[in-house]
Automatic annotation (TrEMBL):
It holds the Pfam family Yip1. The chain crosses the membrane at residues 31-49, 69-94, 106-128, 134-154. This is YIP1 family protein. It comes from Pseudooceanicola sediminis. Keywords: Membrane, Transmembrane, Transmembrane helix. It comes from the Bacteria. One of its GO terms (cellular component) is membrane. Its main location: membrane. It is found in: Membrane.
């Protein structure tokens, strides 16, 4: 299935999509591209909000964009790798049978699949500004990431085929 098809399917059946991604085998290059691609989309999602912030405060837009680029495209994937390693260890403590790669895919995919909500959050922040609407969309985005991540971890570590499917 295509990337957009998988994102749409994740909102209905997150475990099925993770199962499909893990069945493709261990591909660390794919995991890195997924993490950096999601970071790039998060960077793009922040543009409207950053333009509004620069216009309202007089800050230099290029500096805001540069900081956002560094943080979301280069530093965030590193943080996600560390977070995935920690959750893998926690899952193993609770009897999880999945691999570290499966933990990475669960987190990276959760972040990527929730990207439509992050894009909406950026638009709301850019056009409406901070307030209840922006907070509601941000909370919805956070919940989507958590739900997709937990569903991915359950599928990766605690499903019947989790230990045999991937190394």
């Amino acid at each position: 299935m295509s990337l957009l098809g998988n994102i749409g399917a994740t909102y209905l059946h997150p475990r099925r999509v993770i199962r499909h991604l893990l069945a493709a085998g261990v591909r660390e290059d794919r995991a890195l591209v997924l993490a950096m691609g999601a970071g790039t989309m998060a960077f793009v999602a922040q543009w409207p909000r950053l333009v509004r912030q620069a216009d309202a405060s007089g800050e230099d837009l290029q500096m805001l964009l540069g900081g956002s680029l560094l943080g979301l495209v280069f530093i965030l994937p590193l943080i996600m790798y560390v977070l995935a390693a920690l959750t893998h260890l926690v899952a193993r403590l609770f009897g999880g049978r999945g691999s570290a790669y499966a933990s990475r895919i669960a987190l990276f995919w959760a972040f990527a699949a929730a990207m439509p909500l992050m894009l909406l959050d950026g638009l709301v922040g850019g056009f409406i500004g901070s307030g209840p609407a922006s907070s509601a969309v941000g909370i919805l985005w956070c919940l989507a990431v958590l739900v997709f991540w937990m569903a991915g971890l359950i599928e990766a570590h605690f499903s019947p085929q989790s230990g045999s499917r991937h190394a």
